[in-house]
Specification:
about 240 residues; single chain; globular; mainly alpha
């Protein structure tokens, strides 16, 4: 089973790394086609939360692969056997990989089906291949959901997990405004249509959604693994209490 998981993690990691590489080097939207093509300094794709998330998923599944071959996959490894890869994996998925991937996917496709011009204008279709769109906005959800079933992880304390997620989202929000003040262009077309108050409400709602998704991930993990860890008393009591 460990070998199968290792191969699966490697394949998923390579697939995300390649998507990031392709997007960075070959997807160039001319500013004359759409303002989304405008960059600030060397930011290129780093202005999009989608790209931040793709890099995050690439890193997470690489760490998951390394944990399979160099770390520890036991449900409750002793502290001495709990490798750095296992510690990182158990921290990154709950705090960032799950909530951010679900946030990006749900908000993207939600806005896309309401009015795609708000998030993925038709004008950029010739420059952004459909397969890449699905890697960045669909596969991120599918693979992280599959990972919830593939291996056990112990969620960090809510103080740590929610804190990391909040800091991450706050950093991106600040970055979004830095780009706006330097270029005069909002990264996402929907922000152009909102006044100041509406934008504040929009950002608060999105931050709230990301926090809700953290607790959704925690609940999914509990439902999947509660019975499987019933012989591991510390974990069972912890999960049962949530």
């Amino acid at each position: 089973m460990t070998t199968i998981r290792a191969v699966a993690y490697l394949a998923v990691a390579v697939h995300f790394w390649y998507a990031c590489y392709y997007d960075w080097n070959y997807v160039n939207i001319p500013p004359t086609v759409h303002p989304m093509g405008i960059t600030y300094g060397r930011t290129k794709k780093l202005k999009f939360l989608t790209y931040w998330d793709a890099l995050l998923q690439s890193l997470f599944f690489t760490i998951s692969f390394l944990n399979e071959i160099l770390g520890n996959t036991e449900v409750s490894p002793s502290w001495g056997n709990n490798s750095i890869f296992r510690k990182l994996k158990d921290l990154i998925l709950p705090s960032l990989a799950f909530p951010i991937s679900m946030f990006v996917g749900l908000t993207f496709w939600g806005l896309y089906f309401v009015d795609r011009e708000l998030v993925f204008p038709k004008a950029i279709d010739p420059f952004f291949p459909p397969w890449l769109n699905h890697v960045m906005h669909t596969n991120i959800m599918l693979f992280v959901l599959a990972e919830m079933y593939m291996s056990f992880r112990r969620y960090p304390s809510r103080y740590v997990g929610v804190g990391i997620l909040t800091i991450f989202m706050a950093c991106y929000l600040v970055w979004l405004h830095v780009i706006y003040f330097k270029t005069g262009i909002w990264v996402y077309p929907i922000l152009e249509k909102l006044d100041f108050i509406a934008r504040v409400v929009f950002f608060v709602v999105l931050l709230g959604l990301s926090l809700v998704l953290y607790f959704v991930g925690e609940k999914i993990n509990q439902r999947i693994w509660l019975n499987r860890v019933k012989f591991e008393k510390p974990y069972y009591n912890e999960y049962k209490a949530k």
